[in-house]
Task: inverse folding
């Protein structure tokens, strides 16, 4: 029986990007389908009273170095490319995530996800600047202005809010979060447990 | 080639206890030796400006539930018994950890480690109460008063401080921490990566 994995993501999370890179090979190995669900990480943090690990562990000695080591191990295990650190981090992803929902309605979701991750973590740009975002999306063959404009529609805004609230109600508190049925997994490190579950 | 894994532990950490439970089978499967290194978790926290996850994530919705889920998955994966929550948590483990160093000098380290973990997480007691600790250790066939008294010797105190400082210098920030050579692993979840490394 082929499984479906929900991948709750926000383009602002480098660990979501690394997961996104690892997913195609996992899907190929297992036959599972990955269902990408756009959520607003800032909304999840607000609803759960959580903060990013960068904020939570600011000033904690050895923690940053260990996170770097975990990232190196992930890159090696899943044979993906490391991200290029976005010098504008943290990028406010509200409009990018709304445009992801718009891209679903426009039928260009996969292409949009690829492009948005690319311009955040492969050739990183200040994607919360409207002109920068439009130009970047256009360069990837999308209609950036159309998607970002449609992102302002009430229906689109409401859908992103609903996805985010639903995530919190099902147990999410950060990014990336995965669901296999009701089983939740958190963090790029647990992608291997996701793979075990859908392979088993 | 048989590997040696250093296991840096403090009896106050339930995740260190669960790791301790899982270690014998891992050692049997891999032929590796686990070298138990007593450290003072409070000292590591102070030196790194870190806090316990319980403190760090107090008030963060969904986090406690997810930690519970991770613990259930660990218990299932490594076929160990869950801990019994110590109602006196957090127990100040300074004297217990000093007595662990004393137990090394007295040649009763393994027996002491087993007993101290038992009285913290199997039949939990207020082990920072001197009379309680002595009675508990005596009930496990040890000379509790002797070990706790020897724990006050300057040499013993200095050794625990040195272990703790050395841990921080090598990258530790919490418990449990494992080293395979210079490769550090953190948290009970990474015991499986430790096992992969020493099996490979």
Result:
């Amino acid at each position: 029986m082929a499984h479906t994995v929900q991948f709750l993501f926000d383009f602002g999370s480098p660990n979501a990007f690394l997961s996104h890179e690892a997913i195609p090979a996992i899907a190929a190995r297992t036959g599972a389908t990955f269902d990408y669900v756009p959520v607003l990480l800032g909304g999840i943090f607000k609803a759960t009273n959580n903060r990013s690990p960068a904020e939570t562990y600011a000033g904690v000695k050895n923690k940053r170095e260990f996170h770097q080591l975990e990232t190196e191990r992930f890159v090696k295990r899943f044979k993906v490319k490391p991200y290029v650190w976005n010098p504008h981090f943290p990028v406010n992803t509200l409009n990018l995530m709304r445009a992801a929902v718009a891209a679903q309605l426009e039928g260009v979701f996969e292409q949009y996800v690829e492009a948005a991750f690319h311009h955040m973590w492969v050739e990183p740009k200040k994607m919360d600047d409207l002109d920068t975002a439009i130009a970047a999306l256009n360069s990837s063959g999308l209609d950036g202005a159309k998607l970002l404009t449609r992102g302002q529609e009430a229906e689109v805004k409401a859908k992103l809010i609903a996805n985010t609230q639903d995530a919190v109600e099902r147990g999410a508190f950060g990014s990336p979060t995965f669901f296999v049925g009701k089983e939740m997994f958190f963090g790029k490190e647990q992608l291997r447990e996701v793979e075990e579950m859908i392979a088993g």
In short: The two ends of chain A are 10 Å apart (CA to CA). Chain A has one domain: 4-199. The CA atoms of residues 26 and 195 of chain A lie 7 Å apart.
